[in-house]
Amino acid sequence: MAYVAGQNAAFQRLTQQTNGVTVLGPVQNTQVPWVAGLTLAQAIATANYMDPHNPKEIIITRQGESAKLAPKELLNGVDIPLEPGDVIEIRP
């Protein structure tokens, strides 16, 4: 529970500080500048995913609403357009 509380606190801080996209998880860069046409795959590549294994779950949060995406879908070509302020959580 403490881990989740810490993640939620970080999420709140980060979404208030940026107009870009925040990527949580094993990444080198948690802040990705938003540009028109930015997609989930581009954001993950820009964040530089560091885990040697494929993620088990990807969660996109936009304006307080969360949606899960199976990483297999992303690897099979399903890509999602992002908006400023989106938060991506990658769970290894």
State the helix count.
3
Low-confidence stretches: none
Radius of gyration: 12 Å
Structural class: alpha+beta
Tell me, briefly, the overall form. globular
Order of helices and strands: HEEHEEHE
The separation of the N and C termini measures 18 Å
Domain count = 1
Helix content: 25-40%
How large is the share of residues in beta strands? 15-25%
CATH architecture: Roll
Largest sheet: 5 strands, mixed
CATH third-level topology: Outer membrane lipoprotein wza fold like
Report the CATH superfamily.
Answer: Outer membrane lipoprotein wza domain like
Mean pLDDT: 87
CATH class: Alpha Beta
The count of strands amounts to 5
Spatially, the strands of the biggest sheet line up as 2-1-5-3-4
Tell me what you see in this structure.
Helices cover 32% and strands 24% of the residues. It has 92 residues and is of the alpha+beta class. The chain has one domain: Outer membrane lipoprotein wza fold like (Roll), CATH 3.10.560. It has a five-stranded mixed beta sheet. Strand 1 (21-24) and strand 2 (31-32) form a beta hairpin. It is globular and about 35 Å long. The two termini are 18 Å apart.
